[in-house]
Write a structure and sequence with these properties.
The protein is mainly alpha-helical and 191 residues long. The protein has 6 helices and 3 strands; from the N terminus they run βααββαααα. The protein has a 3-stranded antiparallel sheet.
Length: 191
């Protein structure tokens, strides 16, 4: 890992990538999501403050345990004046995320334990199919491939609505032309 002299207070995107272990594209993505920030030089190059190293480490650690980027961004936004997260911040935030992670672990264990019960046919009516149909939610609406039937019906409704809207639009254009022709006839005195 390349060392950066202490007197350098800003890093290029390449230096930040090398030190943090994150790809340049990931750093650009983090920046677009508001997780880190940079300033632009007169040559329009990004420069990151050294504190960005800790923010990137914070983001990557949170991602590794399954925390969504939106949740990470909210956590970082709570810090005063975009301050770099400290060990205490991590302890407080990770304690708040613990219940969410425990619930995910429970769900994953349940999925693992019931994996052999899934027949994979897509019927979505088995009460034990925790992969496709937790708690048999679709079985309440009837048997068979409910999702597929409902999806096709939704697509059909959308196509019908689009065609109806197009017919209404064509009718309005026709009515407008007739109105324009009548106005023209009035103006020229023809009937």
């Amino acid at each position: 890992m390349p060392q950066i002299p202490e007197k350098i207070h800003e890093l290029t995107v390449g230096q930040l990538a090398a030190r943090s272990g994150a790809a340049v594209s990931a750093l650009h993505f983090y920046e677009t999501k508001g997780l880190i920030s940079s300033r632009r030089t007169t040559g329009n190059q990004r420069r990151y403050h050294r504190d960005s190293l800790r923010r990137v480490a914070f983001v990557r650690a949170a991602q590794r345990v399954g925390i969504p980027l939106a949740t990470i961004r909210e956590a970082l936004a709570e810090l005063p004046e975009e301050r770099t997260p400290t060990r205490e911040d991590w302890a407080r935030l990770s304690a708040a995320w613990r219940a969410e992670l425990d619930e995910r672990i429970k769900q994953l264990n349940r999925l693992r334990d019931h994996l052999t019960d899934c027949i994979g046919c897509g019927c979505l009516s088995l009460a034990t199919c925790v992969l496709s149909n937790p708690d048999d939610a679709f079985g309440e609406r009837g048997s068979g491939s409910r999702l597929l039937v409902e999806q096709r019906a939704g697509e059909r409704r959308a196509a019908e609505q689009s065609a109806a809207a197009q017919r209404v639009g064509e009718q309005r254009v026709g009515e407008q032309r007739v109105g324009e022709e009548r106005e023209e006839e009035k103006a020229t005195g023809c009937r």
